[in-house]
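Quarterly update from the structural biology core.
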Amino acid sequence: MALFKEKNITKKTEPHNSNSKRKEEHLFIALNQDVSFKKINSGFEDYNFIHQALPETDLNDIDTSTEVFGKKLKLPLMISPLVGGIKAAEEINRNLAKVAGICRIAMGVGSQRAGIENTGNEKTYQVREIAPDILLFANLGAVQLNYGFGINECSRAINMIDADGIILHLNSLQEAFQSGGNHNFKNLAAKIEEICKSSHYPVVVREVGFGISADTAVKLVKAGVSGIDAGGAGGTSWIEVEKFRSDSKVLKNIADSFSEWGIPTAESIKMIKEAVSKCNGTNNNKIVIFASGGIRSGIDVAKAIALGADIAAIGLPVLKNIQISVRRCIDYIQEIETGLKIAMFGIEARNINELKNTRYLKRKA
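Predicted structure, tokenized:
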């Protein structure tokens, strides 16, 4: 498949800040440059499981299945929102949907703003015919609620792909480093609350890589969200991505000074869990905690669940594997599944509920 290798990159025939051109550049940079955090790790390396030498169970009996928003998943994993709105996205999303369907995991599509603004882009997101039974999420930038979007656009995003819910992503730091970015994040909590009250589907709010703090989690719980995705620091840095594509010498020069900005994913999960517990009763629905940001292995997934998450999500490694082939991406997900099972076996956690309640995850001294 090998899309968007350097020799195939197109010349800039569109304005630098056009939505479609920006998406092409994001995809190219993510696949061809090192855009990881340089000074922050996900935080999972700060925790170890305490090995149980006598697990009193059979590895073959370990059950990694879970239920999220009424849909059964083979393992607590989602393909994070990645691409959409450009020609290359159609094939990528359809192949990702094949992986999600075969592996019985969840999936989110890339930001659908391009599909809302130009109906000709809708097909680049549409994957339901490929995977009719998967847990599928629509996706829009929350900041667009301050730029003319509202419940109608959220409903259009849902209907566009026959989704089970919608993700509203928070990307304030990315927008700050993006030439021509959307900087008005005023009163977004109230507008998110309006979407939640008007919606008949789950609304999940996620960070794109700088973490959700306890205070932000409290705001989101009070707004009535159905799920919160930590989107913590330690994986892909969107400051790094924007640094590569920026025309601003000022933004390029200051990007490195933000190399330690963000909440590591592991710590963000703990903050969200604590906030949700404190706000118990504010939102009558169980709030699903998603963990994304630097999750790379089955052990990372296990640690995320043990720290308080209900489901983990992986982005860039999946994107890179799907560039090789659908088969390679399936193999990668199966590696995640096997690693998760063995980690659970090693601490005598026979199912996801027991993993969530394990006492065998300890922070290193």
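DSSP finds 14 helices and twelve strands in the chain.
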